[in-house]
Structures are given as structure tokens and as C-alpha cells.
């Protein structure tokens, strides 16, 4: 855990019906994968969600209608932040693993792709955020490399039972932000420049994230959506507030 408190936006990625057997007990509820992000302004470019195959997750009642799928740890934190049907106490309806989530079709706020799928990422930390990550491969180096690996390594896809039709190809990546130095798909450019081999290339990915994260915020301009042409820095808080006001996201601290 970091020493600094971190505030995430939790994006409500709705599981599209019909539910698979494992989610049967959730029939009649609105069920979401709750993805923790620091970049709500990038949600236009979502291509999939990421889950940790061996990760432990649960389906938690947040209120009368909504169920969030996330780690037990995040559910407990949320309960103390007034996001639990039972005050101060997580209420788990179904215990799940990442394997149960792979292949779920999702509808996510702002995404230009109407239906996206949950796919495996092996570097997800279970002690950070919700254990669910939304994938924006245009601007997130980790997301780009994990998508790269699924595209280039059929054995990886086979190992986790991932169907071809769930996996966006690298040419499907949506340009959403221009950064003068890195172009319209900053993560792809920086991963190629640094010759990053896979999602496990930790040190280089730290450098790639440092480069794109800072520049994206200070020099990025939107290429898409309601705020096209505007600076990321100016519109990031506006998009965040909108997502919260429309009920498509909540704020989560840890
Ligand atoms: B970010 P910090 Cl476009 N394990 O969202 C691994 N990574 C996780 C995670 C977990 N349990 N929970 C969240 N994250 C990712 C968007 C994004 C992100 C973009 C660019 C950079 C970026 C789309 N993915 O993060 O350690 C999430 O990915 C660069 C750091 O708390 C979240 O924001 O600083 C970010 O890491 C939180 O990382």
C-alpha cells in the first residue's frame, strides 16, 4: 500500500445479459465490473477490461439494485465509504475468480466500442484499486503490451480459453488523445521506441508509463468526444464529474 492516499474513479462496466451460469444468483440485478482508473478522460478509447485469472473476486451488493464485481479488499474499503447495501459491511452474493470473468461482454461508459470483453492480464495487483482494470491501449503502456501479448501469443490465448472474437487487434486501437511528442497513440509509440517485449518487461514499462502519463496530462489534446480539441488538463475534472453525476462512476479512495 502507498503512503499517499490515492483517489480512483471506479468505472461501472455493465455485464451484458444473459448472465453465464456462475452469475445465476445475480439475476434481476444490475451487475458491473468496477474498474479503478486515474484517467477518466481516456474512457472513449476502451477496447476491453482486464482481470487477473487467478485473482479472487466477489460480487458485492452496493445498494438495492447494483452489484459490483471486485476484490474482497476493495469491497471492504467501499463498505467504509458508504458503498455497501449493509452499512460498513461487505455483502457478497457470489465468490468468483478471474477465470469466471474472462469472456464476459461489457458495456462501458463513453466507450466508442459498444461491447467489450473481459480478458486476462497477468500483472494486475490485488492490493491496488479493485483488481479490475479497464483497457485503453492507445494511452496506457500496460494495456498496450497486454493486448500485444494476446495478439502475438496464441498459446497465451489458449491457456486462458480466450476466443479470437473477444480480442481486439492492435489495428483496432482507438486514437483519443494527441501528444505532440508521441502522436495519436502515445502508448504504442513509446512501447515500440523502448522496444518493450511483453507485459512482464517491468522496468521498461515503468519508464513508458512515466513518459506518457506526465505528457498526456500536461500536453495532451482530446481527439474525440464532447471535448474534442480541448486540453486534457482542462477537461479531465469535467469528464470525471459528469461520469459521477450520471451514475456511471463513483469515487473510491484507498
Ligand atoms: B489507468 P497507480 Cl489510459 N493492478 O487507467 C495494475 N494496474 C492497475 C490496477 C491494479 N490492481 N488498478 C488500476 N491499475 C491501472 C487508464 C490508464 C491508466 C491510462 C494511462 C495510464 C494509467 C486505463 N488503463 O495508469 O499505481 C489503471 O490504469 C498509469 C499509472 O495507482 C490506473 O489508471 O498510480 C493505474 O494503473 C493506477 O495506478
Structural class: alpha+beta
Task: Tell me which ligands are bound.
Answer: ligand A2H
Amino- and carboxy-terminal Cα gap:
9 Å
Low-confidence segments = none
What would the principal axes of the Cα set say about the shape?
A: globular
GO biological process, one term: reproductive structure development
Family: Belongs to the class-I aminoacyl-tRNA synthetase family.
Organism: Cardamine amara subsp. amara
GO molecular function: ATP binding; leucine-tRNA ligase activity
Topology:
Layout: E1 7-15, E2 30-37, E3 48-51, E4 56-61, E5 66-70, H1 72-80, E6 92-97, H2 98-101, E7 105-107, E8 116-120, E9 133-135, H3 141-152, H4 154-159, E10 177-178, H5 186-193, H6 202-219, E11 221-222, H7 232-245, E12 249-253
Parallel strand pairs: 2-5, 3-8
Antiparallel strand pairs: 1-2, 1-7, 1-12, 3-9, 4-5, 4-6, 7-8, 10-11
Helix pairs in contact: 3-5, 5-6
Fold and architecture overview:
With 254 residues, this protein is an alpha+beta fold. The protein has one domain (7-253): Isoleucyl-tRNA Synthetase, domain 2 (Alpha-Beta Complex), CATH 3.90.740.10. Helix content is 28%, strand content 23%. The protein is built from seven helices and twelve strands. Strands 1, 2, 3, 4, 5, 6, 7, 8, 9 and 12 form a ten-stranded mixed beta sheet that branches. The protein has a two-stranded antiparallel ribbon with strand order 10-11. Strand 4 (56-61) and strand 5 (66-70) form a beta hairpin. Helix 5 packs antiparallel against helix 6. The protein is globular and about 50 Å long. Ligand A2H binds next to strand 2, strand 9 and helix 6. Ligand A2H is lined by residues 6, 36-39, 42, 124-125, 128-129, 131, 133-136, 139-140, 143, 209, 213. This is leucine--tRNA ligase. Belongs to the class-I aminoacyl-tRNA synthetase family.
